[in-house]
Amino acid sequence: MTATIIDGKAVAAAAIDRVKAGAAAFAATHGNPPGLAVVLVGENPASQVYVASKGKMATECGFHSVQHTLPAETTQTELLDVIANLNADPAIHGILVQLPLPDHLDERTTIGALDPAKDVDGLHDISIGRLASGQIDKTLLPCTPKGCMELLSTVHPEGLSGLDAVVIGRSNLVGRPVAALLQHANATVTIAHSRTKDLPELVSRADIVVAAIGRPEFVKGDWIKRGATVIDVGINRIPAPERGEGKTRLVGDVAFAAAAEWAGAITPVPGGVGPMTIAMLMANTLEAAEQSVRR
Ligand code: NAP
């Protein structure tokens, strides 16, 4: 058996089309489009690329898109002032602070200063608490976990009730919130991490496997239960000498080719979860804008 390859690019493109339509309707009704502000501190090259693509996508969606690029030596107080101004700006419905921040700035203090209603990354303690306590209709969900759930819904349109799910990884960014969302969807969830005993055995019993580890091809194909759905969140760059000297390629946390022989459905890397993250950021910004006029 060979698995269905879950096409994250296509699912993300459909989500973006819905956001574009929603943004146009919002602007027509309220006279101004949804607004997204992205705050970048310092000159981390990867962060610069991410921020540029978020801004470009926001513009494509018809949003009012602003970027605040602050020097690496920005103080915590200066950063909090920028956030306070964005919190107070009625044209801005979503604020994203690009992480990681330079070492002298505290991430929890910074995220904690966001108005939770504008926390489109879903990383504020109030957003996390609402998700953890099952109040998912009252919060903006973190983008990558939300994207994982949307991909799962394409394979399991009837829902996940009663399915056994194993999430490998317990980060605040991915593992924990994915596990909370799976539990909310009535899956029976086990969270595995670096101290878990006999991970292959645990994975072999799961109907759904979400891998968020950050280790190239760590999950082996023959761990996967026949017919299971595999969501590979990992993005790992490895050497690819077969493509030429110094070349690299991206792989996930799952040994894709071997796992596809066992799984019922699996996300590729790239082209699986990755495109969903930015699409869900746009969906969250539209949702924040719509919520702002309901309050
Ligand atoms: P992270 O904060 O480093 O967390 C990794 C998790 O994996 C930790 O909980 C760790 O366990 C666990 N782990 C490490 N080694 C393990 C092992 N040998 N066995 C079992 N568990 C192990 O990483 P993250 O931020 O969650 O990101 C995970 C991956 O997803 C990375 O490749 C990242 O690039 C990718 N990612 C992709 C997207 C996207 O848009 N597609 C978004 C975010 C992240 P402990 O807690 O015990 O240390």
N→C terminal distance: 51 Å
* Bound ligands: NADP nicotinamide-adenine-dinucleotide phosphate
Helical fraction: 40-55%
Largest sheet: 6 strands, parallel
Q: Helix count?
A: 10
CATH topology of the largest domain: Rossmann fold
Number of strands: 11
The proportion of strand residues reads 15-25%
Radius of gyration: 19 Å
**Overall mean pLDDT:** 97
Cross-sheet strand order for the largest sheet: 1-11-8-7-5-6
Segments where pLDDT lies below 50 for 5+ residues?
A: none
CATH class of the largest domain: Alpha Beta
What is the SS-derived class? alpha/beta
Overview features:
295 residues; alpha/beta; Rossmann fold; 6-stranded parallel beta sheet; 3-stranded parallel beta sheet; 10 helices; globular; binds NADP nicotinamide-adenine-dinucleotide phosphate
Structure, explained:
- The chain is α/β, with parallel strands linked by helices.
- It folds into two domains: 30-118, Leucine Dehydrogenase, chain A, domain 1 (Rossmann fold); 143-275, Rossmann fold (3-Layer(aba) Sandwich), CATH 3.40.50.720.
- It has ten helices and eleven strands.
- The strands form three sheets. Strands 1-11-8-7-5-6 form a six-stranded parallel β-sheet. Strands 3-2-4 form a three-stranded parallel β-sheet, sandwiched between helices. Strands 9-10 form a two-stranded antiparallel ribbon.
- α1 packs parallel to α10 (273-294), α6 (143-155) packs across α7 and α6 packs across α10 (273-294).
- The longest helix is centred in the first third of the chain and has 23 residues, at 8-30.
- It is globular and about 55 Å long.
- The termini are far apart.
- Bound molecules: NADP nicotinamide-adenine-dinucleotide phosphate.
- NADP nicotinamide-adenine-dinucleotide phosphate binds next to α10.
